[in-house]
Design goal:
Elements: H1 3-10, H2 21-40, H3 43-55, E1 57-63, E2 73-76, H4 78-84, H5 95-100, H6 104-120, E3 124-131, E4 137-148, E5 155-164, H7 166-189, E6 191-197, E7 209-211, H8 213-219, H9 230-235, H10 242-255, E8 259-266, E9 272-284, E10 289-299, H11 301-323, E11 327-332, E12 337-340, H12 342-352, H13 371-384, E13 388-394, E14 402-412, E15 418-427, H14 429-451, E16 455-460, E17 465-468, H15 471-476, E18 482-484, H16 490-493, H17 496-511, E19 517-525, E20 531-542, E21 548-557, H18 559-608, H19 614-646, E22 653-656, H20 657-667, E23 677-682, E24 688-691, H21 693-709, E25 717-726, E26 729-736, H22 743-746, H23 767-777, E27 781-786, E28 792-799
Parallel strand pairs: 23-25
Antiparallel strand pairs: 1-2, 1-5, 3-4, 4-5, 6-7, 6-10, 8-9, 9-10, 11-12, 11-15, 13-14, 14-15, 16-17, 16-21, 17-18, 19-20, 20-21, 22-24, 25-26, 26-28, 27-28
Helix pairs in contact: 18-19, 21-23
Length: 802
């Protein structure tokens, strides 16, 4: 037995005690390990390393407790103190001390392993971490065995050898980390490594083959998914590349030289990859023949695609240069020609009489009269390293007017050094002529806009910007001839009551591809706040898809014309109303006056007669008095109608609608709820109107008292009075739940003079006639919605003051 092992065992054997037979095989294996270890290292190195190994290897013995085996007496060798970081006999050796130096997970491992060893009697081996006294961690390997009582077979002791293998563990972890990093690097770079052992024949490619994980992935497999061999790899080669790859690899092996080959692979999933394979032949020094091949396999599919794209881009660029109208010349830092396209050569031959020659200075092929200008331009770009664009005019007998646009761009390195320049020359003679035509056209346009009072406008629908002629400032007092059309611009100056209508009409025309003209009339605020009337018309310009891109139009101030038309309409309406009044007056004269007068004349004739007795005479006098009173009432009614016209000269004022209703309630002696009459008002939209108070008072009074007069006697009366705003009018609604009127037969008679529809209720038929006359005198309208037995609703529309 190895002497070192023998000395350690003697610490645990009593005098005369021998090694148990069942431990002899285990200890013999340990002894042989020591012997083999010593044979591999000579002289002083043996002693030094053996000393280190002895210092990192110890033994312990646990005498088992029959009641609780893992609570027995623990003894260990002197080397164990060093492994745990203590000096000899520094601390008492206990099982609790041992477990205290274990990590929680390792403590469970040790307890479980020792318990299994006691239960099964089998030897064990375990590796785990220890926490030394100084807090550092060490990794140990333990090999243990169970000693039983020879007679009873009961477990007596556990004996183990503990080896500190921290350095080996850390070296192993470092190797694993490096392998992990290598694998990650290969995966990122799409580079795999491989190694193939060769058989005796130099020409044979068959042998053991090892692939890295990334090689598996390149081929479309998971690492270790298949057993690799040469035939499997060859099966993934593109059929058109197999013969060439075999020739390259076979030739390299025959010459024992490195090889590199680019080919195509077809993965297990059928994906086509471009790869590069590189290999080195390893020669056996003693036999001087190849023994294995090591190499890499790199996926260059992306690089290949990029290279193909670059070649395609180069071809496209060359195609563009040769097919463009621009003459292109590439110069080096000395302004010598490196490259030029066909157009540049043709331009030089045509305009200067020189052919482009690579290596010549650029300014040498320019006309003598322009050499200095070109030289200064090139020097300016070289010094500033900024592009320069200028226009150049050429003139000769054949082409007296010829213009070119010249663009010189610097080419600068990463170190900000000028390494060359590019010169692009493009003929712009047509553009120049077009600009001249546009200039003339603009001058004509300006003259036209000066000659008319219309505001000419041009609206770009893409950015909402509109440009107007200066007439806009003169006519409407605008502060700018260019602003946004819809957002905070023109539309904001349109009268608020016209904005929605005008905007909706304009947008509907723009969005309808079949409409090419928009026109409308609206009110427009001048800068000073005055209201102008405008007639606007625009031509919609569309693209080939029918989308509107631009509108050009004219805006005309028609304020004077509109006001004259309004005055004319007002006069016409007034004449019509007077004519109606005259017809009414004629009707009254022919019916209401003529009847009483005829009666009076007849009664007068009877009174002159002497044949009447006293009783008949008194009857005639009574009849004459009654007829005279009726005639007087008719005359009073006519006077009231005529006074309506005379009151129009009164001054208009602001009138509170709520106050007006309260005045009428007081006048008619009405209190809310009295006699089951309820008047509800809602003037939240507007409580003020600008009008003639006498007229408005009469209108409210007639409509309220009319509702009270024609109420239903068997239920409470509700009168709802409400105000609203609509299209430049104040709208007043008077709604009740009274008896109503049959409009099917009486619609045309409702507002007539002396027209009555309820003979059982006292009345003359003058109130609604007066109301309608007064509303129309104010420029308004009155409507009635009614149903017999279903109440009535009168709607009065009064225009806002101008």
């Amino acid at each position: 037995m190895n002497k070192l092992l023998q000395r350690q065992l003697e610490q645990f054997l009593s005098a005369g005690e021998t090694i148990p037979p069942h431990l002899e095989g285990f200890l013999q294996t340990v002894s042989e390990t020591y012997e083999n270890f010593e044979k591999q290292l000579p002289g002083e190195e043996i002693r030094s390393l053996v000393s280190q190994q002895i210092g990192s290897m110890g033994t312990w013995e646990l005498t088992l407790d029959s009641q609780n085996p893992l609570r027995g007496q623990l003894d260990w060798s002197e080397e164990m103190y060093g492994i745990f970081g203590y000096t000899k006999n520094e601390v008492p050796v206990t099982l609790e001390l041992y477990f205290a130096h274990l990590l929680p997970a390792d403590k469970r491992l040790v307890e479980t392993t020792l318990g299994q060893m006691i239960a099964s009697g089998e030897d064990c081996r375990m590796e785990h971490w220890l926490i030394r006294k100084d807090g550092n961690e060490c990794f140990v390997c333990q090999r243990g065995t169970l000693v039983r009582d020879p007679e009873s077979g009961e477990p007596l002791r556990l004996i183990a050898i503990v080896h500190d293998i921290t350095d080996q563990k850390r070296a192993q972890e470092e190797i694993q980390n490096k392998e992990t990093h290598l694998s990650m690097t290969q995966r990122i770079a799409r580079v795999g490594s491989w190694e193939m052992g060769l058989q005796q024949s130099l020409n044979s490619l068959v042998g053991s083959l090892r692939l890295s994980d990334e090689c598996y992935r390149i081929l479309g497999y998971e690492p270790g998914e298949i057993v690799p061999d040469v035939h499997v790899i060859t099966s993934h080669l593109h059929p058109e590349d197999r013969k060439r790859v075999h020739a390259v690899v076979g030739g390299a092996m025959a010459a024992s030289s490195p090889f590199e080959v680019e080919c195509r692979l077809i993965t297990r999933q059928g994906q086509l990859l471009h790869v590069i394979g590189r290999g080195e032949i390893i020669i056996n020094g003693l036999r001087n023949r190849p023994v294995k091949v090591i190499g890499i396999l790199q996926d260059v599919t992306e690089q290949k695609r990029a290279s193909l794209s670059l070649e395609e881009a180069k071809a496209n660029f060359k195609n563009i240069l040769e097919n463009t109208d621009t003459a292109f010349v590439l110069l080096d830092a000395e302004r010598r020609i490196l490259l030029f396209n066909r157009q540049a050569d043709e331009l030089a031959r045509r305009e200067a009489g020189y052919a482009m020659i690579i290596g010549e200075k650029y300014e040498d092929i320019v006309l003598p009269g322009r050499k200095e200008i070109v030289r200064q331009a090139l020097e300016s770009v070289a010094l500033s390293k900024q592009k320069l664009v200028y226009e150049s005019h050429y003139a000769n007998a054949d082409r007296p007017e010829c213009w070119f646009s010249v663009s010189i761009h610097p080419i600068v390195s990463e170190n900000d050094e000028l390494i060359g320049m590019s010169v692009a020359t493009h003929e712009i003679t047509k553009e120049k002529n077009h600009l001249e035509q546009i200039k003339v056209s603009n001058e004509r346009y300006e003259l036209v806009t000066r000659a008319t009072k219309d505001v000419i406008w041009d609206w770009n629908l893409m950015d909402d910007m509109v440009y107007r002629s200066n007439t806009f400032i003169e006519v409407f007092g605008g502060i700018s001839v260019a602003d946004e059309m819809l957002k905070d611009g023109w539309i904001e100056q349109v009268h608020e009551e016209d904005q929605a209508r005008v905007h909706q009409h304009m947008m509907s025309c723009i969005e309808n591809p079949r409409v090419n003209v928009w026109e409308d009339e609206y009110r427009f605020y001048r800068k000073n706040g005055e209201l102008a009337y405008v007639s606007d018309r625009g031509l919609i310009i569309r693209n080939s898809q029918g989308q509107a891109e631009r509108m050009v139009g004219a805006m005309r101030d028609i304020t004077t014309q509109t006001l004259l038309e309004k005055e004319r309409d007002k006069i016409t309406n007034d004449l019509l109303q007077r004519n109606v009044a005259l017809e009414q007056f004629t009707y009254i004269v022919s019916h209401n006056l003529r009847g009483p007068v005829a009666n009076i004349l007849g009664l007068s004739g009877l009174l002159k007669s002497s044949v009447l007795d006293e009783q008949s005479f008194q009857m005639c006098l009574t009849s004459m008095e009654s007829t005279t009173k009726k005639l007087d009432q008719v005359i009073k009614d006519l006077d009231q109608v005529l006074q309506v016209r005379q009151q129009l000269t009164q001054t208009k004022e602001k009138i509170s609608l709520r106050g007006l209703v309260e005045e009428i309630q007081v006048m008619i002696g009405h209190e809310q709820g009295h006699n089951d009459i309820w008047i509800n008002i809602d003037f939240s939209e507007t409580d003020e109107v600008y009008s003639l108070k006498s007229y408005l008072h009469s209108i409210f009074h007639n409509l309220i008292t009319n509702s009270i007069k024609y109420r239903k006697r068997d239920q409470p009366l509700t009168i709802d009075i409400k105000s609203d705003q609509s299209n430049g009018h104040t709208v007043l609604s008077f709604k009740d739940n009274g008896t109503g009127i049959d409009l099917k037969t009486n619609r045309e008679k409702v507002f007539g003079l002396y027209k009555r529809f309820h003979e059982s209720i006292e009345g003359k038929g003058v109130g609604l006639f007066m109301t309608k006359t007064q509303v129309e005198s104010l420029g308004g309208r009155i409507h009635l919605q009614s149903e017999l037995g279903g109440g009535s609703e009168f709607t009065v529309e009064l225009p806002h003051p101008s």
